[in-house]
Write a structure and sequence with these properties.
The protein contains 18 helices and 13 strands. It is of the alpha/beta class and 372 residues long. 45% of the residues lie in helices and 15% in strands. It starts with a helix and ends with a helix.
């Protein structure tokens, strides 16, 4: 694959279709491995399941038994009863969640163990425990319910489970927030400040009752009064894929199209959310495009692999990305390491969460699954 071309990809809004994305390039070696993987899947039958995230390349998703967003794939992982091997074509925190929800007779494999998530790494257990203790020193008897986005480590999920909290996805964050406020006085949300702010705004929580905790400042940069008066305490994390989108990009669309719909993921900034015609998870984005009409112009603000596949799937619509925004960690999963994994199931690619962490993290994940 021509990586140089891949990273220099530019959007040509003047073309009739968004059809020149470099993942059209498929080498003879990759084709051979692709076919061998398909044959190996037939050999293994029900003993194997491949879970593929929407942000994977189209060739990887074609090999997936289930393709979805983090919530959908978590649900599938929880439902896997017979598969002895689960291969997760995604990033590390997703494979961890699959291991937490899978049975003791199953193993979860990540084709490239270096496929991490920078946003998940923005909240470490050590930092979270420090912030939790510091914030509570400023409170009286107020109860905080910790909620972590699915894009977090198993340790952070376990912290939430141990403290009466839950995991959420972009699909059910509002429902989890509403539940949390029946359990306590405040929500502490990590790691994605944008999803936290957008959810709080959606629920009508005043902006002066939302505070952004800055780990580098005393009391997160806030007075005791501000902490007491807050309803939502946000962690200072973000997704670099969605951070790239700007208001200026949206304004420039008016010069290109007379009529279009802008659909964005809620990890985008509140300023982008205010300009969007639709906001939702990757599943929401897929459903929106599927329900659209021929000739519709749809601009999508999320990871580019998903946008490309939708454009290819619906050539009778004009589907473009708001900007080329690639997740390089998703890109670490490729035909070579997927082939190596399915052929040999190397032990070094098994993702294992220890029993104590798994027990508490499962409490938080089960609460998420209850809300659908």
């Amino acid at each position: 694959m021509d990586k140089k071309k891949y990273y220099k990809f530019e959007i040509n809004y003047d073309s009739n279709h968004f059809n020149d994305f470099p993942h059209d390039i498929f080498t003879n070696e990759e084709k051979e491995l692709y076919n061998k993987i398909k044959e190996r899947k037939k050999e293994l039958g029900d003993d194997l399941v491949i879970l593929a995230h929407h942000y994977q390349s189209k060739w990887i998703t074609e090999l997936g038994d289930f393709v979805g967003d983090s919530f959908q794939l978590s649900r599938e992982a929880a439902n896997m009863k017979n598969a002895k091997q689960i291969i997760f074509a995604g990033v590390h925190f997703m494979a961890e969640s699959a291991d937490i929800l899978s049975g003791s007779n199953q193993k979860v494999y990540l084709p490239n163990v270096k496929a991490g998530c920078p946003m998940a790494d923005m909240t470490s257990l050590q930092d979270l425990e420090f912030a939790w203790e510091e914030i509570h020193k400023n409170l009286n008897n107020e109860k905080i319910i910790p909620i972590t986005y699915m894009n977090s480590t198993a340790d952070v999920k376990a912290f939430c489970g141990a403290h009466g909290g839950a995991v959420c996805t972009s699909s059910n964050a509002d429902k989890i927030f509403e539940w949390a406020f029946t359990q306590g006085d405040k929500v502490m949300f990590m790691p994605d400040m944008n999803l936290g702010m957008n959810t709080a705004n959606k629920l009508g929580i005043p902006k002066n009752e939302q505070i952004l905790y800055d780990l580098g400042k005393e009391n997160g940069g806030h007075s005791k009064e501000a902490i007491i008066n807050s309803k939502v305490i946000l962690w200072n994390g973000y997704c670099h894929v969605h951070k790239f989108f700007s208001v200026e990009m949206v304004k420039n669309l008016k010069e290109k199209f007379d009529n279009y719909k802008l659909i964005v993921h809620p990890e985008a900034s509140p300023e982008i959310i205010e300009l969007a015609d639709g906001i939702g998870s990757t599943k929401y984005i897929v459903d929106y495009v599927e329900a659209s009409n021929p000739g519709d112009v749809i601009i999508i603000g999320t990871e580019i692999n998903l946008v490309y596949r939708l454009a290819e799937q619906f050539p009778d619509r004009k589907i473009f990305p708001l900007r080329k925004s690639l997740c390089p960690n998703m890109y670490r999963i490729n035909m070579v390491n997927l082939y190596e994994t399915i052929m040999a199931f190397p032990e070094e690619r098994v993702i294992i969460v220890d029993d104590k962490t798994k027990s508490n993290a499962k409490k938080a994940l089960d609460r998420m699954l209850e809300f659908g």
